[in-house]
Amino acid sequence: MALSCRGVCRGASVILLYGKQPVGVKASLCTPRLASTKSSSLWFVRHYSPSQARRGIGQSIVSRLKWVNEKYERFLQRRFPRFYALYHTFMKGFVFLYKGFRLLFQDAQEVRRIMTRMFSDSVEHQNVSYRDLEKLRQVRRDLIKAIPLVIISIPPFANYLVFILMYFYPRQLLIRHFWTPQQLVEFQRVYHSQRAQHHWPIVKGLESTSTSVQDSRLKSRLMELCSKVRHGVHPVVSDVHAVRTLFSGPPLGIKKMYADQMRNLCPLLFLTPRLPGFWIGRRLNSHALELMQLDRSIVQLGLHQLNDTELREACYVRGLNPELLSPAQCREWLTQWLQFSTHLKESETSLYLHCMVLLTVNYPKHPRH
After folding, report:
1. How many angstroms separate the CA atoms of 206 and 320, rounded?
2. Coil, helix or strand for 284?
3. Which of 252, 221, 220, 218 is nearest to 236 (CA)?
4. Using 50, 70 and 90 to split pLDDT, how confident is the model at 68?
5. Residues 242, 230: Cα–Cα separation, whole Å
6. Measured between alpha carbons, how far is 73 from 66 in angstroms, rounded to an integer?
7. Which residues are within 8 A (CB) of 248 and not within 5 positions of it... i.e. 6 or more apart?
8. Model confidence over 203-243: pLDDT tens digits?
9. pLDDT attached to residue 26
10. What contacts 345, CB < 8 A, 6 or more positions away?
11. Average of per-residue pLDDT values in the chain
């Protein structure tokens, strides 16, 4: 019995699209046509739309490519293990690059939404929510850090050099969107160790400056505060507020400090100290005011509203290393910090910056005996 050519072709087409034979087609491959061409065509249209056909082709291609790629990787891992290690590293890098660009695009959309709402609703900066303010601050820092990489990429064919530099210097050139979770932890540890190198020079600078304080009572309280920190004691908020008047004018005001003391404060905020003294003072003051506004926004939001990740990030930005701290310890420290910072005036930004050392360096250590 001869096979129907049209039935064979129609059945083969459906097999190619879906990888399996539906009931109505099997008969047309192996037996004579039992129904008319018109009824078979109507059956096919009813059960398989063009969108389903395209989706079936796409799924088939994707699954086939995945199978080929897995087989190729197993071959490399078995025959060329060293090359496979390098290949695997680069492939992971490209995956994180894709994720990084996606996260950066999402942040850009979020910032656009925040700015649009601020302008359309005439929202004052101090009335913006904490999470929106933190998003604006972080994205601005990311964009500033990305400027050197963009400049390097401008010349023709420089993109090849950029990829090499990003691979070997991810901490220096890439922003946080392009870091792996392991790199994020590692790089934060490196950055904190760099600013921790300036903790004792800052305390020593306070001690040397105290000799020029005319008020004997304030001088003794400042020396006592520095002595507590040197001996491993974590000071309380009242110890800091007792000397706050020294930080709004000479000799420790933001515009009255020595240039060396200001340069020691720059790493606390991850700022470069290689600038003229007046410029450093303006940048320190601007960043301190921004953090003070964020502190007030946390109080308005409610500290209990922050999740563990936001808690750790808030502590890290304010000078504390939360790597070995529990969420309860982070919350305890941030509570103490807000009690201190929300009572400061705008003229006391110098005290705010110095307390990023005084209130962090010994937490949560116990006094030494």
Report:
1. 20
2. helix
3. 221
4. confident
5. 18
6. 11
7. 345, 347, 348, 350, 351
8. 999 999 998 898 999 999 999 999 999 999 999 999 999 99
9. 41
10. 248
11. 80
Q: How many CA atoms lie within 13 A of 261 on its CB side?
A: 23
Look up tokens 């800052």; give the residue. Answer: 202
Rounded Cα distance, 202 and 264, in Å: 6
Tokens of 93: 């890098």
Question: Are the C-beta atoms of 367 and 232 separated by less than 8 Å?
Answer: yes
Measured CA to CA in angstroms, residue 87 lies from 59, 71, 177, 180 at distances of 26, 14, 22, 17
Q: Which of 1-15, 43-57, 73-87, 112-126 has the lowest mean pLDDT?
A: 1-15
- Measured CA to CA, the distance from residue 316 to residue 322 in angstroms comes to 6
Task: For residue 216, give every residue at least 6 positions away whose Cβ sits within 8 Å of its Cβ, in sequence order, or none.
Answer: none
Dihedral sign, Cα of residue 289, residue 290, residue 295, residue 299: positive
Contact 245, 352 (CB under 8 A): no
d(CA 201, CA 361): 12
Considering Cα of 270, then 272, then 273, then 279, what sign does the dihedral take? negative
pTM over 0.85: no
Encoding tokens for residue 96?
């994180």
φ and ψ at residue 324, rounded to 5 degrees? -105, 10
Q: Which residue has the tokens 């606390």?
A: 268
Please check whether residue 133 is in contact with residue 293, taking contact to mean a CB–CB distance below 8 angstroms.
yes
In angstroms, rounded to a whole number, what is the distance separating the alpha carbons of residues 292 and 341?
Answer: 7
d(C-alpha 96, C-alpha 170), whole Å: 12
C-alpha distance across the termini of the chain, in Å? 103
In which residue are the tokens 């398989």 written? 48
Copy the structure tokens of residue 346: 């705008």
- List all residues 6 or more positions away from 241 whose beta carbon is below 8 Å from its beta carbon: 340, 343
CA–CA gap between residue 296 and residue 129 (Å, rounded): 10
| Cα separation, 360 vs 348, whole angstroms | 18
Cis peptide before 156 (omega within 30 of 0): no
Name the one residue in this structure whose structure tokens are 């850090």.
145
3-state secondary structure of 275: coil
